Amino acid sequence: MATDVEVVQYETVEINGCCKKGPGYASPIEAMDGPKESLIYVTCIYTGTGRGKPDYLATVDVDPNSPSYSKVIHRLPMPYEGDELHHSGWNSCSSCYGDPSAARRYLVLPSLISGRIYAIDTQKDPTAPSLYKVVQPDDVIQKTGLAFPHTAHCLASGEIMVSCLGDKDGNAEGNGFLLLDSDFNVKGRWEKPGHSPLFGYDFWYQPRHNTMISSTWGAPSAFTKGFNLQHVTDGFYGRHLHVYTWPGGELKQTLDLGNTGLLPLEVRFLHNPSEAIGYVGCALTSNMVRFFKNPDGSWGHEVAISVKPVKVQNWILPEMPGLITDFLISLDDRFLYLANWLHGDIRQYNIEDPANPKLTGQVFVGGVFQKGNTVLAAADDGSTYQVDVPEVQGHRLRGGPQMIQLSLDGKRLYATNSLFSTWDRQFYPELVEKGGHMLQIDVDSEKGGLAINPRFFVDFGAEPDGPSLAHEMRYPGGDCTSDIWI
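Structure tokens predicted for Methanethiol oxidase:
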């Protein structure tokens, strides 16, 4: 890591801020020394479950010394039904560290299906967040033509940027990037006219390299109906990364990941803002692809990690991909963690050599071929087997690991198990029936290693309004998947 460069940069920011700090931390390494998490916000879904209730934001107590540890202590229902709350972000984060007038106050909740975007006030009472503002989809569509909002990131300018996956009819060609001002008014599109990608999904920017890279899921008209392999062949899903100038918004390069990079979802740069390296998790082919800046300023890519498909019996296909649906990088850029939603395991890789990740930890917390299910995995010799997944506090683990979140110090990994209600129903119908859950994985951040914490289990199947699906997680003070340094 370019430590000397970082120190100069961060000292300059503090001086320019007249020794006053904005939100977040001066550097990723400083963030690792931040306070231990005591609360975590979880987006919880009733959309698609048939229960006729609005989605909600749950506040979970994660302080092991608290009497309500591992319990939902507050629920904030949204004012409408049918949202499908998805990936959340903040109104400001460490990218605004040099601005003492900025505050990490509002959690931004895009709704993938309805198109609404909620601003949630977490400052008045962090244990009981309240609704501040609703951005209505009609306003977004009228001013930008965008719909199906997905990922929200704060910008150093104080604006909020949200990737949108299509137009109001679900066509992928209509996607792009929405800009909101600091009070959540629609400003317009971020990208230059004529520079919208064919598909959209996630994005991450690295200002020191004047670059933003976005990934590609699929057309909303396809994925909202469930996964159909024929739709991949028909061109309704993506396999590209899009490289933009930052903050200019000009699409300057498209990386075709080919058949080894189908459905590239989460995209992350290394946290060190001087590094021009990142990864994207390709769900269908279950590869982690590393992207990097070439000496001539162009960007290249290569497969860095491959999760081999497993031969199976009693399933919809003869081979089952791991289906990497989420991954993250520790704040010191030493470890990468990924979740295989179908195989059911979470993996830890050492990436101190970014081109040669080394597997250092693995734990199974569910999956299609766990013991008790009908699906069997087949070994090379023709024998069959199933994975032994332990119960936690007497609960059989349902579904597979989907969203993950790491503590600032890198020692605790949290995992939920809902991907998207329609896909949950298709691949894990038990999830929709019995609800999701949240686990905590203890991490050996020195030598490597993962183990389920037997003291922690949040059962969203026991919610007052019936079983709900648990998706993304955020700490009040920011985390390694929402904060970007400049």
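The CA atoms of residues 11 and 178 lie 32 Å apart.
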